[in-house]
Phosphotransferase family protein (Aeromicrobium halocynthiae), 347 residues
Amino acid sequence: MPESAVDLDALRRWLDEHAAGGVAGPLSASLVAGGRSNPTFALDDGTHRWILRRPPFGRVLPTAHDMHREHRVLSALADAAGVAVPRVVGPVGAEDVIGAPFYVMERLEGRTLRSAADTADLTRGQRARLSDALVDLLVALHAVRPADVGLEDFGRPDGYLDRQLSRWRRQWEASATEDRPVVDEVLRHLGETVPTGSRPGIVHGDFKLDNVMVALDDPTRIVGLLDWEMSTLGDTRTDVGILCSFWEGPGQPEHPITAGSTTHDGFPERTHLAERYAAAVGVDDLDIGWFTAFADLKIAVILEGIHARHLDGHTVGEGFDDVGAMIAPLLDRARRTVTTASAASRR
């Protein structure tokens, strides 16, 4: 972690002003593993523990990594039924405190299941119950009426999918480190087969197993939904696509990020997740092939941005050397999924 990543003296003054009780002792900051996009730091004064989030260092794509959006949605959902989120501390911190906008939130007590080794610790029954809890959490989030929590102007659900395709094309063009014709191919197929209808609501944007924290004494109980940097108002089916993109089953190609975390016995097939969600919200057909392919593309574009920052020397911590190798498998999977879905729709 660069010494300049967090100015502890300035941050202490900020916490003394905004955190209940202020800072009790010497303040320390350590980089939290797992956050490839927005650097995340654990803060500790010997009595209190917080989490700080800030934008990446170096090249940042337009409209991405907005600390105000994360802070706003967490504040709005603090008391939403069935949606566990950490509580924020104070307002968004100004750039002159640590060199970038940031926000601080409570540090939850729990664990994050990031790998196949982590989920190997669960029993077969725990894996099944945790899978259902994930879907139920997503259903609860999507049931929140934006106007009821002050988020009625948080995004524009109308035309959301078309705008998303345009946005991720622009993001790719802004961060591409090499020419990949498959991106145009996937975008063309997605554009030709945009699902009809809409399921408007609050979209998390990165809903997956390792973005939730589970209780230390019960890995089937979710104590917090994290990483809200891509949240907005839009078509909630995109969250189901993200969940299915990261969900792997026996015999399926591994996702390059999660690498088998849901392949252990007890985790259901992704079709079970989609069917449980559809039944809960009263939808017959989610068009999950399209949304899964779109999710694969979106994740690949995000990884390309991270890879570009890493090549520029603007990443902190470990786990970035292999990011570039993750992009081609995701794009290839998106191409196969969307072309198969397109062919099926023409029959």
In short: The first strand starts at residue 28 and ends at 31. The chain is about 40% helix and 10% strand. The CA atoms of residues 110 and 215 lie 5 Å apart. The longest helix spans residues 288-311.
